[in-house]
Amino acid sequence: MAVDLHLHSWFSDGTDDPESIVDVAAEMGLSAIALTDHDNLDGIPRARAAAQTAGIELIAGTELSVGWNGEAMHLLVYFLEPGSGPLQNKLTEIQQGRSNRNEHIVERLNELGMDITFEEVLSEGEGTGIGRPHFAAVMVAKGYATDIRDAFDRFLASGRPGYVARYRLDAIEAIELAVASGAVASIAHPHTLGVAAADYREAFTTLTAAGLGGIEAYYGEYEPHLRDHLAQLCADLGIVATGGSDYHGHYKPDLRIGVGRGDLQVPDTALEELLAWRDRHTDRFKASDH
Ligand code: AMP
Ligand code: FE
Ligand code: FE
Ligand code: ZN
């Protein structure tokens, strides 16, 4: 059976309810999904309740933007349960950093001559988990960009005039906090890191030593040969080849739950291996082993 370990609801920058994501995943015959909203676990209780009804497994997760070699790296964190814990306790600070950054983006866009208010962006994002795709959607609605991609390419991407940096954890710090929280960290869509595929092994060895548990090897945007290359690298490093659609609802209309652009299939062994990795590596679970 297949799983999807990378999904966004409107608790961050997706457009669907957690319940509807769970229902679609169940209809597609997936055995498990991970809800991985950016920087928060707020959708997990609703997704979990829906998953119980639908008879599929729900993994609590989040996707963090962390600093790595001066660049932003996206890190998926699995089995991070809502409540308090070493990494959970950092989420408030990260969310505050996001919120401060968002206010600065509005100022930037206004300076660039766009008539956009923070209220409009809040309303686009249903008031929660506001991120750059919500700015992009307002820019499109008001005619300042032709589509979401255009809004990023010209204004919101790193290095563009509407970009504002925000508080983030360092990659190693985030990985160590994840492990200390009984969770497992996996590098999301590594092709966005500006590292050549041939250099991944060298690049990720230090992170693996720090407690990295996986790399997102199955992802719709890659060519199949890159998925194979990453899966082999994970096997060599003793970590897990994870994968998912990165579904965002309307904001990424070409990506579908479970299948990405149509040809994605993430084996359920990925989840079994993540659980096994967690049991081997996290203190909390080691303690309950005997
Ligand atoms: P934020 O977390 O608010 O900084 O926004 C980051 C999110 O913006 C990512 O998770 C993607 O969903 C989206 N994103 C980043 N770059 C692009 C892009 N070039 N085109 C479309 N969406 C993007
Ligand atoms: Fe996103
Ligand atoms: Fe991402
Ligand atoms: Zn994502």
List the uncertain runs: none
Unique bound compounds: adenosine monophosphate, fe (iii) ion, zinc ion
- Whole-Å distance between the termini? 31 Å
Structural class: alpha/beta
Tally the beta strands.
8
Strand portion? 15-25%
Shape: globular
Number of helices: 11
Which bin fits the share of residues in helices?
40-55%
* Average pLDDT score: 95
Largest sheet: 8 strands, mixed
The sequence of SSEs as H and E is EHEHEEHHHHHEHEHEEHH
Strand order of the largest sheet: 7-6-5-4-3-2-1-8
Rg on CA atoms, Å: 18 Å
Textual characterization of the structure:
This protein is an alpha/beta fold and 290 residues long. Helices cover 42% and strands 16% of the residues. An 8-stranded mixed β-sheet has the order 7-6-5-4-3-2-1-8. Helix 1 packs parallel to helix 2 (44-54) and helix 4 (118-124) packs across helix 5. It is globular and about 55 Å long. The structure holds adenosine monophosphate (AMP), fe (iii) ion (FE) (2 copies) and zinc ion. One fe (iii) ion binds at residues 8, 13, 38, 248.
Give the tags.
290 residues; alpha/beta; 8-stranded mixed beta sheet; 11 helices; 8 strands; 42% helix; binds adenosine monophosphate; binds fe (iii) ion; binds zinc ion
